[in-house]
Amino acid sequence: MTRILALILALTLIALPAAAECRVDYKAKRDNPLKLDFGTATLPDSACGSKGDAAAALAPMLAQEGWTLLAIVSIVPKG
Predict the structure, then answer these.
(1) What is the structure's pLDDT at 12?
(2) Using CA atoms, how far apart are residues 38 and 29, in angstroms rounded to an integer?
(3) In whole angstroms, what is the distance from residue 26 CA to residue 37 CA?
(4) Per-residue pLDDT, 20
(5) Residue 26 in 3-state DSSP?
(6) Is residue 68, in this structure, part of any structural domain at all?
(7) Does 37 reside within a domain?
(8) Considering the domain boundaries, does residue 54 fall inside one?
(9) What string of pLDDT tens digits covers the 79 residues of the chain?
(10) Do residues 69 and 25 lie in contact, with contact meaning Cβ atoms separated by under 8 Å?
(11) 78: which DSSP letter?
């Protein structure tokens, strides 16, 4: 009986999501020469509430790679 309970507990823990997150589709640009990109990124749950939240989280990440965020196109919850 103890083994069955342990197995049920283990399967339940495995089924729980490791971290809530979402996928966002975005448009970005790079200058000199002009390059446009339509990309996808995975963001933490705290950035999934609105396009503004997603933009605030994604823009600095893109900027580190030399891109400027133009728009969040869509937010797709993961799970």
Answers:
(1) 41
(2) 9
(3) 8
(4) 77
(5) strand
(6) yes
(7) yes
(8) yes
(9) 444 433 343 444 344 444 579 999 999 999 999 999 999 999 999 999 999 999 999 999 999 999 999 999 999 998 6
(10) no
(11) -
